[in-house]
Write a structure and sequence with these properties.
It contains 17 helices and 11 strands. The protein has 471 residues and is α/β, with parallel strands linked by helices. Bound molecules: guanosine-5'-triphosphate and magnesium ion. Magnesium ion binds next to helix 1.
């Protein structure tokens, strides 16, 4: 599709009714200028891939006065000619500067989205805006946005229905992917000229969304494979100072683990192009430093009760229950997870015991020359589930977040758990099946039997689950 063929959709409405917010959410672009005061002063184009273009416009300034000059379009053979004359006449007129600018895309034949804020009352100037848009004869639909309590929704809807064949609710701050597609579908229905291209665009967007889910599933599975096999091995420096070195290794191991997890979280956030969602920067020291180990994380995600799933496909063990037994009232933090035992052997004990930090002592050397300290890998049954849950929490946060939102969001353990819980209703059975498949995956990862084919299977299972919880 050449650029000239792209469907162009102009977003119009009163100042501060949320036009730019609608553009940001539709285009999934959080760089769109949004503000509580008159913000958009010139038309700005936002292209979505090479599929279509949104034009954000300044709000109407003097709609009632403009209407008086545009009314003759009602009986004119070519209504847009009247609009063109208006723009030529007022090109240098400060009084109609916004009207001249917002009419640019209208004159170029765009489809129109009229955005109203139903938390504000319908005023005579809005009646004039509606009439102006009707006079253009352009394909158009109306959106009921709300920047606060939707007190005036009824009045707005009744009025708009008289002038627009399609009036739909579209909350710029809450709209999800399904709402966005529904809006484009509605446009395709009224815009007969752009219909075919819009339908093509919708299909591409759906594929695009699937790719994002696939990327996220891969990021999660790869991070899980890494953290489940992660170790920190160092040569013993001084046999008399084993305890000190052990603490250092623990710390480095913990950093590596957290770092790997944070990298995955950031990649998920990036996949959904949200720059106001913060993962582990200085504002969230706990989450960055100790995310996997702080008491809050384990208590919120591990002990909350909703995650009592049959995770061990073999044993059918209840993951949540185990955490209770192991950690109930005990010490929290890395100490509980990566045990402080120093001794021979090396194989980590079974999943019921905390993983051990081991010292391997070569038989030929009494002086411990060449001895090694090793921390990890973490063998606890619950470990991958905690990592997975936290990644799912990040995914749910960003995959449902509208790009119009201006607030900074910090992903801490509590936020992730709350987000996750909201996705669980009525889905437990499906989740259980996913858990069974993933429990097998985790065993394969731990045993070093996780090959490409198994990776693809795991990615598919997880991707399908992401689709379920992303809307
Ligand atoms: N809570 C909430 N606030 C919204 C919503 N849409 C817009 N806002 C807020 O309303 C204000 C105006 O939003 P904009 O999108 O800049 O409105 P606009 O119509 O483009 O404004 P101008 O460019 O000045 O004409 C901003 O503070 C937005 O954050 C919404 O759906 N929910
Ligand atoms: Mg704006």
């Amino acid at each position: 599709m050449s650029a000239a063929d792209l469907p162009v959709i102009a977003i119009l409405g009163d100042v501060n009714h949320g036009k730019s917010s609608v553009v940001a959410t539709l285009a999934e672009d959080d760089s769109v200028g949004i503000g509580a005061f008159p913000t958009t002063t010139c038309c700005q184009r936002f292209r979505v891939r090479d599929l279509f273009e949104f034009v954000d416009t300044p709000g109407f300034q003097n709609a009632r006065e403009a209407l008086r000059e545009l009314e003759e379009a009602d009986t004119h053979r070519e209504p847009l000619a009247v609009f063109r004359k208006f723009v030529e006449r007022h090109r240098d007129d400060r009084f109609f500067v916004n009207e001249c600018r917002l009419l640019e895309p209208v004159l170029a034949g765009s489809a129109l989205l009229y955005v109203v804020d139903v938390s504000q009352p319908l005023e005579p100037r809005h009646e004039a805006e509606v009439k102006i848009l009707r006079l253009t004869g352009s394909p158009r639909i109306a959106l009921l946005n709300q920047t606060g309590e939707p007190r005036h929704r009824g009045v707005w809807e009744a009025r708009l229905r008289q002038n627009f064949s399609t009036v739909i609710d579209f909350d710029a701050h809450r709209a999800d992917f399904t709402n966005r597609l529904a809006l484009l579908e509605a446009l395709a229905t009224v815009d007969l000229a752009g219909k075919a291209r819009l339908r093509t665009a919708i299909a591409v967007l759906q594929r695009d969304r699937d790719e994002k889910l696939d990327t996220t599933a891969r990021v999660m599975i790869d991070a899980l494979a890494d953290v489940l096999t992660l170790k920190q091995t160092e040569a013993l420096r001084d046999p008399l100072r084993v305890a000190t070195q052990r603490r250092e290794i623990e710390e480095r191991f913990r950093e590596k683990l957290s770092g790997r997890e944070t990298a995955a979280h950031r990649e998920i956030v990036r996949t959904f192009a949200h720059r106001r969602v913060v993962v582990g920067d200085s504002a969230t020291p706990d989450f960055l430093r100790d995310g996997l180990f702080v008491e809050k994380t384990w208590s919120v995600l591990g002990l909350s009760g909703w995650r009592l799933v049959a995770a061990g496909a073999g044993g059918g063990a209840l993951v949540g229950a185990k955490i209770d037994l192991l950690f109930g009232g005990a010490t929290w933090g890395l100490g509980a997870l990566v045990g402080g035992t120093v001794g021979g052997g090396g194989a980590l004990a079974g999943s019921h015991s905390p993983p051990k930090l081991t010292v391997r002592v070569p038989l030929f050397s009494r002086a411990l020359v060449g001895a090694e300290l090793t921390a990890g890998p973490v063998a606890h049954d619950n470990f991958p589930w905690i990592v997975l849950d936290r990644a799912l929490g990040v995914f749910v946060s960003v995959s449902r977040r509208a790009h119009a939102r201006q607030d900074e969001e910090t992903l801490d353990a509590t936020a992730l758990a709350a987000r996750l819980q909201a996705t669980r209703a009525d889905k437990d059975q499906a989740w259980e099946a996913v858990c069974k498949a993933l429990a097998k995956t985790f065993r394969e990862m731990r045993k070093g039997r996780f090959d490409d084919e198994r990776r693809e299977t795991a990615v598919r299972v997880l991707r399908d689950w992401l689709r379920v919880i992303s809307v």
